[in-house]
Design brief:
The structure is a homodimer. Chain A is an alpha+beta fold. Chain A contains 13 helices and twelve strands.
């Protein structure tokens, strides 16, 4: 692993830290449009592929049967902040299938958004599975199991019927093998599979365009992307990069972060999918990378490109609100 | 910046992320004992030099005048969790000088330790400067100002009489220039200066041994190191690496983390100082690096070396407590 430095962190005028990474941009026919670094090395996409993992929720007819609209579908693709709106919508999704938080097998953690944590604590509450940033995805899994008549207990385990459906979807969309050889366990206990960035970028171009996917899958993919872009608050939450970026160009950009510095993304109007990983796993750098890459891809659209270049240069302030530095893409990306 | 990968993060058996870095180990005479990567590049040590920044508190006689023991001196060198014990001791230190939290100019943030945050919120509280992880250092600054008759307002600013005393101490101990050219602003608003790892390692060997320092400074340095090693809870807090590592070998190892992946450390019985930085700023990797380096240095002591090698291989578990991976030093360090 020896990829180029793509992002620098400055304190004053001095580079304090640096982040190497790799980036792949592909079209839906599998043509490489941009590759930086080693795009053939297998990486764990983690939560960045939640939209692919939400396909069976739509394809099985569960989403329609339970009357799920954009918000529910966005939450099924989310790594959310655990804000009240996220928690209550995940609860409502489960209720449609006659379930509650006890069915969730993702584990509990305090909300990742600090204000949500302090509000929960102040009200005397403690977190349960609904506060887990993956609870929307898990609620989607459980609803699909119930609708399809699949026993839901143990749904997080490799080999469970529903995990096999997810594995089929991931293999089909990315064209990469997903099996015991490249399997790890994710933070929420489901399997995660290491695949090359090139396959992920190709897969997200397919998701955005429907090209190369069966009809029903193509429709489900477009519906999920549209839902996330229409309701970006439910994909992440207050102050979150994914939410802010998708809001900045409604309906035109799709981004999803994954743990350990991953993004899967798409520019649907260009038919392009993007996948990238910061080698060291830093989300702050992966955010700069995806914004800088998108700015390159939409260079023809001055207004949008300018917005994206701003996302690629976040300012760092300290506890007194004083500007102390910032992040910037290196020449390789800028 | 192109240092070797020193730490790998595994998910299952697959390397998910990797952290390059540089390490310097020097003795008090300035002899290099171990150098990995670029140890001449200037890095911001951030909070890793708090022990040097606490020297004037002792040297001015303020610590004695206010009756400060090991706990207070350890807190003056700390990046603490904001637990009740830390907050109340910082408050008591200020009270000795007739001050309270309003004199602090470090800014407020919720405690970095989650349980401290939820307990504070549950009790209806909000954070003030005392909860800032640097409040002990700032309390020490304020006490020294009051004792020495220095106007304390604006004490965080470059050029303030007390910051000039700190700058003199940093230059004297490390032998590196500290001035406007290599200055940045730290999270708590005081100046931080970028200096080479080699100078920092040499400086921490001097702190540990007193060699090359004026008598009064040598005594102050030894007293501060002894205080931190005697009361490691007050240097960091519950579940924190610095606290756990110093507790594992009472009085024999000194470590202090700094933001953006820095450690300054010492093995006093060997007369060695250590300074290292993870290039990408990851604290998780810097912890593995310092433990692995220390294990190398004390290889002659099987029991201690074994403990340190355990610190260098932390296990990663997920929200259900399932082991999903871990960190390990690469061959360069192991």
């Amino acid at each position: 692993m020896s990829n180029p430095v793509l992002v620098e962190v400055l304190r004053g005028d001095i580079v304090e830290s640096a982040h190497p990474g790799a980036v792949a941009v592909f079209d839906a026919d599998g043509k490489s449009v941009l590759e930086i670094g080693d795009t053939q090395r297998a990486i764990f996409p983690r939560s960045a592929v939640k939209a692919i993992q939400a396909l069976p929720l739509v394809e099985t007819g569960a989403a329609d049967a339970y009357g799920f609209g954009n918000k529910e579908l966005a939450l099924a693709c989310a790594s959310h902040n655990g804000e009240v709106e996220h928690v209550e919508l995940a609860r409502a999704m489960l209720a449609k299938a006659g379930l509650d938080e006890h069915a969730l097998e993702c584990g509990a953690h305090w909300p990742s958004y600090q204000r949500a944590t302090t509000e929960l604590a102040r009200s005397g509450g403690v977190p349960n599975g609904l506060h887990n940033n993956c609870s929307g995805k898990h609620a989607g899994f459980l609803c699909a199991c119930c609708h399809a008549g699949i026993e839901h207990r143990g749904y997080v385990k490799a080999g469970h019927a529903y995990q096999e459906m997810l594995r089929e979807a991931l293999e089909n969309v990315t064209g990469a093998a997903h099996n015991a050889d490249n399997r790890g366990t994710d933070g929420c206990s489901i399997p995660t599979y290491a695949v090359p960035l090139g396959n992920l970028a190709h897969g997200f171009a397919r998701m955005a365009t429907g090209i190369g996917l069966a009809d029903r899958r193509a429709k489900a993919a477009k519906r999920l992307f549209a839902a996330c872009m229409a309701e970006p608050f439910y994909v992440a939450g207050t102050d979150r990069f994914d939410t802010r970026l998708m809001r900045s160009a409604p309906g035109r950009l799709f981004v999803k972060i994954g743990a350990e510095g991953v993004f899967c993304a798409a520019v649907p109007e260009l038919g392009l999918g993007i996948a990238l990983k910061c080698d060291d796993g830093a989300g702050r750098a992966a955010e700069v990378m995806v914004a800088a890459v998108m700015a390159k891809l939409v260079a023809h659209d001055d207004t949008l490109a300018r917005k994206l270049r701003e996302f690629a240069r976040p300012v760092l302030t300290n506890w007194n609100g004083i500007t102390v530095g910032g992040l910037r893409p290196t020449d390789v990306l800028a």
